[in-house]
Amino acid sequence: MQFEIIAKCSTTRARVSRMKLAHGITMLPTFMPVATQAALKGLTPQQTEELGLTLILNNTYHLNLRPGTKVLEAAGGAHRFQGWRRNLLTDSGGFQMVSLSSFTKVTEEGVLFASPFTGEPTMLTPEESISIQHSIGADIVMQLDDVVSSLTTGPRVEEAMWRSVRWLDRCIAAHEASGRTDKQNLFAIVQGGLNHELRDKCLEEMIKRKDRIPGYAIGGLSGGEEKDIFWRIIAQCTEKLPVDRPRYSMGIGFAEDLLVCVALGVDMADCVFPTRTARFGVALTFNGPLNLKLSRHAKNFDPIDPTCPCPTCSSGVSRAFLHHIVTHETAAAHAVTQHNVVFQARLMGRARDAILKDSFPQYLRTFFQDYFGDVGYPRWCVDALRSVGVDLLSGTEDVQMVEGDGAKWEYSEA
């Protein structure tokens, strides 16, 4: 990996970086769509590349179950298997400790999974996780970490944090012994739950291993915790992580979350949100999400966003047509997925452009005014951005603030 910082915001911690991997260059900050089983739901790999994406995510746990490492190795890795020519990141399988907790048991050796298909037990050790990711051939591979829900408290959080440190050492040893460090880059994952002291301890330990770690991820968040706590953990981690390593916040997908995290110093993020929400008929825009199932769109013959260059919008597909087919035609999911993936790319692309021009604070003010001006700014966003020198309320009149996560949604016809 070659990682070079191109520009820094003079106000916030945001930066633009150039990350060169085995399958090309990815400019940061960026959002990574999730192709769980080597397929981005609703898009072919060729379409995904044509939309301008240079980095996507595959899921190690699921690819190990199906098609399995033998098939992947015979195909020459996941790039060839799925026809994807750009960069690829794989998670380690650790998140499935939470998402499939009823099928798992965690020990010091690793994670014992019961296959959700056959019930057959499988032990995933740090070494095995790295081996599977080697078979997949991802450009960025993640350590196996001991993942607990972000809402977990008590001794289990500290246990998981220290185990993640020990498992990192095992992952490093397995990765270095493979001779693949020149093509595949191992990222560490900072754990510690919502406990600032535990996060500091984990950061200290993982930074000690910096010379053997090309990048760092912030894990254990986006699991239902309060947003006011979420952003403070992100800020704590980005403040202390090495400036010459990419920083990846796992599981972040809402537009406001992404921009706040970029302002706090995050370079990379991933989430199923844009593709999953597309399958439920929700299109993402710079004025907020549109629930195309609602009848208010039945006679609207405008595209989702007239300024959007995605194939759906640029070809003139109307909201009315999408409303007509959204609940019963797979073409709707395909069309909205194309749009949502491009929206996330535009959101981050505009952030990069603004950082390069040193106008990122103004971009934030414009985005929040357009997105939340009619419903009120989430207080946590205001507080988070104030912590890095951006006051969203400065120079505005009659702006309301809302408590809680403040996520904007078109729930009903009201």
TrEMBL record:
Cofactors demanded by this protein: Zn(2+)
Domain of life from the UniProt record: Eukaryota
Signal peptide extent: none
Sequence positions that bind substrate: D91, S92, G93, G94, F95, D145, Q191, G220
Keywords: Cytoplasm, Glycosyltransferase, Metal-binding, Transferase, tRNA processing, Zinc
Annotated stretches, region: RNA binding: 251-257, 275-279
Gene Ontology biological process: tRNA modification
Protein's name in the database: Queuine tRNA-ribosyltransferase catalytic subunit 1
Organism name: Botryobasidium botryosum (strain FD-172 SS1)
